[in-house]
Design brief:
Wax synthase domain-containing protein, acyltransferase, Wax_synthase_dom, mainly alpha
């Protein structure tokens, strides 16, 4: 635990120093290839940083926040795009550091508040999600009493609620310290009534925005003059899901140190193909037919969960991520208990000396 804290502090210094350099050149170096060459060493540094950690929680979170999101933000920054280039984020070093190192994005304008399709049930509050996370973690401790598929459903819930709590807490801290509004990261994905709704409007929204800028838009621009507008959109969509799959493979490598089996990439490619088919069907019927929410929501979530069982979780379970997570929870509890015991002992000793 002490070694992980030391590595975390080193990471904090390296990431902050890298982003400070980027902040200093944001206006003095023109956007383009030269700025890209200047930033490229930091891109590779951010990819390397998660390999230093040994605990799966930090391997996964640092791999996602720094190895994936922050590195892609730097690439976009080199060409004058992405979260680091908006006026709200680049107006001060504190905001620039927060946006560069955390899974947050400051909007240039006030984000819309209302949704046209809220779904058949009400969204859950932050406290309710925290409560469900605790209950789900407790339930997983009795996994031997559940059907294997039920256990995988609990894992789905743990991953979602854990991300919601982690990112929600980081967002709340940034809002309190910087006094800014942030774009949402999730928008109640369990209310999705289509794959387009799930991937485009509700799940992992900042990652979707980054992938659109870094993969979808360039691919579509490069191919539209060759294959036409609609095929170019399909090719760009497929490339976007392929890159997402590859980055998930990288995060799995950070956590498991095992050679990729490409199941996760196949998961995202499958969803990319199905999303393209769904959009083609919608375009064909022209909005004349739409399933009610009580039917479309279970179908959508059921498809996401079922394909996760098939392609997303096998590699996750292969390096025993769930077992290691609970071992680390126990180790953290023992570490905190030891530190508290030492503090109490020192307090009693000081009190005795005073008397």
């Amino acid at each position: 635990m002490a070694a992980e804290i030391r590595i975390f502090l080193q990471t904090l210094f390296l990431v902050s120093s890298s982003l400070c350099f980027c902040f200093t050149i944001r206006n003095s170096i023109p956007n383009g290839f030269f700025k890209f060459l200047l930033i490229l060493p930091f891109f590779f540094l951010f990819l390397y940083i998660p390999l230093q950690f040994q605990t799966i929680h930090l391997q996964g979170s640092i791999g996602f926040f720094i190895g994936w999101l922050a590195s892609f933000k730097l690439l976009l920054f080199a060409f004058g795009k992405g979260p680091l280039c908006c006026s709200a984020a680049s107006s001060s070093l504190r905001r620039f550091l927060a946006v560069g190192s955390l899974p947050i994005e400051i909007p240039d304008h006030e984000p819309p508040k209302d949704r046209s399709n809220p779904g058949p049930v009400l969204p859950l509050s932050f406290s309710a999600k925290l409560g469900f996370l605790i209950l789900t973690i407790i339930a997983i401790n009795f996994k031997n009493h559940f059907h294997p598929n039920a256990y995988l459903i609990f894992l789905c819930l743990v991953i979602y609620f854990l991300l919601e709590i982690l990112i929600g807490s980081a967002s709340a801290l940034v809002k309190a310290t910087l006094g800014v509004e942030l774009l949402p990261y999730f928008d109640e994905p369990y209310l999705s009534d289509s794959l387009q709704d799930f991937w485009g409007r509700r799940w992992n929204l900042m990652t979707s925005r980054i992938l659109r800028l870094s993969v979808y838009d360039p691919c579509r621009k490069l191919t539209v003059g060759v294959v036409g507008r609609r095929p170019a959109a399909i090719l760009a969509l497929t490339a976007t899901f392929a890159v997402s799959g590859l980055m998930h493979e990288l995060i799995y490598f950070y956590m498991g140190r095992l050679a990729p089996t490409w199941e996760v990439t196949c998961f995202f490619l499958l969803h990319g193909v199905c999303l393209a088919a769904e959009m083609a069907i919608k375009s064909g019927v022209g909005g004349r037919f739409r399933l009610p929410g009580v039917v479309s929501v279970p179908l959508t979530i059921g498809f996401v969960v079922t394909t996760s069982f098939w392609l997303f979780f096998p590699q996750f379970l292969r390096f025993k991520a769930d077992v290691r997570m609970f071992e680390e929870h126990a180790a953290l509890g023992a570490f905190v208990k030891s530190v508290m015991a030492d503090l109490i002992t020192q307090f009693k000793f000081i009190s005795f000396q005073v008397k």
